[in-house]
Amino acid sequence: MKKYLYSNKGKPIKIVGISSSKRSKNECAKQDPISLGLLKKALKYAEKKGAKTSLIDLRNLEINPCNECYSTNPAQCRFNEKNFQCDCYPFKEKHFYYKGKFLPIIKAYDEMTKDEFIETHTEKYLTGKKDDMWIIYKELMEADGIIIANSTQFYSRPTLLQSMISRLCAVDGGVQELWGDGKNLGNSIKHSLREKTMYKQRLYGKWCAFINSSKEGDMVTPNLMKAFSMMGLKIIPFGSAYHVNWYYDKTHRKDYENASKDEHTESLLKHMGEEMVELIKESKREYGTHSKIV
Cβ neighbours of residue 245 under 8 Å, at least 6 residues apart? Predict the structure, then answer.
């Protein structure tokens, strides 16, 4: 049995940054996340070291909540490595159920009458939800390193980040062999009871780091470190960059300006981007492993 599932050797080094805060200059907050600005800096340092980078902004994606089918049986969680999809949400765009089949919304528009289209659009039980989590699955599978930028909200993770983290269950154990069987629980039970059943931890061996900016202190990163470590990712030394936005400015208008001028934070971001690339260069760039328990 091979220890690793796949290799990125020979491919350009890829670092994926994920911004998880909701605030926006185009909405009521009137400012983009400070952590997003810090993430862009870390990725720039990685690029200067020769890495290819990608930035995922969770504000722009539709990520549905985890259905927690794993908690019934580990094999109830399935993952398609070809389509990068969890089978709880099989559609990459919104579908309508019409005459016994699901149709993409554009095709449904052409085939339905105006009244049928409007009626179906307002009836949630006749629609198949669009889900963008496949984009994140694909990016993380292709990556060598991952940087999560977050904030602390009421001493916990941002909502967008929690939704994404819960859905990582599919890449950290999701069963491909049972894909497409309609979530048959009997098949899942049989699969999990087999003596030689192994689950794929697909992100095993990749490097990760974390950025936090908030007024409450970094209550998030320690828990993220535990979660990513349990999935088999490696945290780079000094892999946490942070900035505390103190209450000196009661209007909060200078928070980003102060953060961008913080030399300590800047040094951590520089180290994060550069060190992650160097560690990847020194590694075999082999990822993923099998586990009997996930």
Answer: 34, 213, 214, 215, 252, 255, 258, 259
Dump pLDDT digits (tens) for 270-281: 999 999 999 999
Q: How confident is the model at residue 150 (pLDDT cuts 50, 70, 90)?
A: very high
Place of tokens 């094999």: 75
Q: How confident is the model at residue 155 (pLDDT cuts 50, 70, 90)?
A: confident
Looking at the predicted structure, is the pLDDT value of residue 266 above 50?
Answer: yes
The pTM assigned to this predicted structure is 0.92
* pLDDT score of 122: 78
Cβ atoms within 10 Å of 168's Cβ, excluding its own: 21
Short-list 16, 6, 5, CA closest to 277 = 16
Per CATH, which fold does 6-61+136-158+196-291 belong to?
Rossmann fold (3.40.50)
CA 291 – CA 270 distance, rounded (Å): 35
How buried is 128 (Cβ within 10 angstroms: 0-12 exposed, 13-18 middle, 19+ buried)?
A: middle
pLDDT band of 265, cuts 50, 70, 90: very high
In this structure, which long-range contacts are made by residues 29-36, counting pairs with CB atoms below 8 Å and at least 24 apart in sequence? Answer: 31/255, 31/256, 33/149, 33/151, 33/213, 34/151, 34/213, 34/243, 34/245, 34/255, 34/256, 34/259, 35/149, 35/150, 35/151, 35/211, 35/212, 35/213, 36/149
Domain ranges within the chain, ordered by starting residue: 6-61+136-158+196-291, 93-129
Measure the CA–CA gap between 181 and 177, rounded to whole angstroms: 9
Rounded Cα distance between 140 and 240, Å, is 19
Number of other CB atoms surrounding residue 31 within 10 Å: 14
